[in-house]
């Protein structure tokens, strides 16, 4: 891999078999290079992207310049049986009113008797009126193995499944059932930091909805992997059009024409995401330099109430239609921005090697100033660690001007005085003087240009490719990784949690789940009350998410996301 001008190297990505092709395309378009196992050292990469989970050793050995696209133990909410258990636990702990967005679920065969009791009780209380149920294998995706039933005699299974109450009154568009695929990025679990993407997908069934035929998967399931084989997939369907997908932008236009409080609808969907992820916080260990892209499937019923269907690990990123291209390419670009790469990350092992080679390269005979990157090592106690600013990611609009380099001069007369500085101390002073090196890679060219005609000498390092060695263990302070207040927006990613100082404080270290749920409940009550004229003055004086809070959160969902604080004092004119 050839180095760039002035010693800069491109960022390197590593894809595991089965990783989406769109990830490779986007990274190559951004100027990245793909990792080559034959030519590069084991840790000489910046991003490792897998569809499946990582090994424990991958998390334990992660280095400061590296990122992984999964958190550990995410099956706690992406496996259907685990999610059902967590939802049941949270309903018991915090009440069914708060967690009323998840249909009743039973894990079979262990809970067959419990389900049978509920089934018989419903038939008695409803005077024989039928209720519909949906059965799903706990560990399969893409709609495989799913079926609906009304009579328990039709419940047949040969593996672990969950049975849920079927939402039989979905909101329809021209008679077609649909759900929303919401893309959620969890940047950290300790503290909990959640971003929701403005663009998503609306997935349609390809045959008109009817309860008369429970066997017709094309009218009841919205999975693209199923509907693309339907006879009506390529047909121009009323309002829906060809295929089975809309972008979220198109859905907003549809919603705008309906008699619905859009602000509350978007906020309730955001609450579903927050409260669902909150169930997993005690189970998922803190892992620096990781993030997780999840696909939340949300169904809206005829009364405009949103329901959580499931949470998808490694949501599909294939490009099957124009809507996919529009949504998913922008999504991947914004995910890379959320990873907050800095200029120093392109050096990888070389940045660490500079520290070990300091005595060899900082010679008194160099009389000119020279440029050194901020060193990848944990500074002495009291000094600011570079990774304290990792979670303060910035979008293209928030790029800073700090170069992350320091100029230092070494004089000839210091050679034999006996008072020359120890190289380690010199590097520590450089670290203190440089400050933040949070610079976007898009500024590389301008940085190179500004230093071309300077009298500085860039220190060159020997090649690290002589031997294929494992990356050195770099000491770095992981405890400060995600302690900086996150940005409220990165590209089309909107920060939905934390949304004020109280939730930020409650999510640190051992998360105070009770305090967080109380804040979520209070915010929802404010939004509901703000549509009452009598309460408006009171809401405007509220300080919990007001202007004096260091957070200025946005409301996820609307085309132009308004400040959440303004939504607490505006009526339904906010769209």
UniProtKB/TrEMBL annotation:
UniProt feature, compositional bias: Low complexity: 385-402
One GO term describing the cellular component: ciliary basal body
One term of GO molecular function: ATP binding
Region Disordered: start-end pairs: 382-402, 534-553
GO biological process: microtubule cytoskeleton organization
Keyword ATP-binding: yes
Keywords assigned by UniProt, alphabetized: ATP-binding, Ligase, Nucleotide-binding
PANTHER family in the record: TUBULIN POLYGLUTAMYLASE, TUBULIN POLYGLUTAMYLASE TTLL2-RELATED
Record protein name field: Tubulin tyrosine ligase-like family, member 2
